[in-house]
Amino acid sequence: MSTQTISSCAGCTSGFSRRDKIIDCSRTSCGKRYHKDDCIGPIPLDGELSTWICPQCVCESRMGGAKNPSTPGRGTLRSHESRSVPPQQMKALPSSDSQAPSPELKETLPPSNLQAQLPQSKMALPSSDLQALTDEIRLLRATVFSFKQEIETISSSVSKINKQLEEVVAHISITDVRISALEKRSETESALLKQQVSSLQEQLNTQAQAHVRNEIEIIGLPESSNENLQHIAMVAAKKLGVDLKDQDVDWITRAGPIQAKSTHASVSSRTDVAQFCRPVVMRLVRRTKRDELLKATKGRKSVTASDLQVGDKPTKVFFNERLTRENRLLFREARLRASQAGYK
Q1: All domains of the chain, ordered by start, with CATH?
Q2: Threshold 0.85, pTM exceeds
Q3: Residue 210: enclosing H or E segment and its boundaries?
């Protein structure tokens, strides 16, 4: 290695910086320095750095010791290509084994430049291959750089998607909590509303039952088109031993829709007649008179329609307290359960 200090590269003629990797020619008579990566290229083994010889010294050794100052490094390939022999003159150049130029080449080139053109023509083909390799490496670097940018873009997109997904998951969690709270609230409010509706229905039923507290329902009286219900009620009260006057009765009528005549013609038994006859509802002015009639019916349960001078069949007639629809269903269910349990 030469101890001589050289401030510029012998290949590209540019100065050195602190970041550059520099390689020196091992010949003490040369002392040239080159950029290792840009002008020389990779060396197979690091141990060969101490025995490395620059391209100019290699060329001199091949040419028998003649110096050629234009011997290119890696950075001077383009200048060397610009001074290479034209294609029509390359046919006149001798082969690599011959050192003497042909007479045709001497006629086409000046004598002073003939010796300098021969080594350049020998280096033309390797430099083109090296340039193609350099272009391929640059293209590969550009491709890798574009791939790197695409990967960075994809990574950024994935990060944004992950962030949005986390936001969606958090929103779903908040929504689930709100839905659970609303469900609990709706269940509580639904139970409260059901309780209020039941309470209102009970109040309406109580009020409806209070409205019919002075009414009596008479079941089993045969129905006819020219019947006088006021007279029938008076006769029934007299049979029961109750003193009932016209001024004690507020109104009396049959409840429910009128039954078809074919229905009465098709029934034959006493129970069927009592079932298809509409009940008679009598409203009394005073509640005490109603209670007196109901008390009298409990002592005499064998009252028939013939006893009341209504019809010719002895169907049983029942005097009951007037009930609302809900209370009537409740009373029927209670009697059914009592009958099933054998309770009297």
Answers
A1: 1-82 (3.30.40), 213-322 (3.30.70.1820)
A2: no
A3: helix 111-211
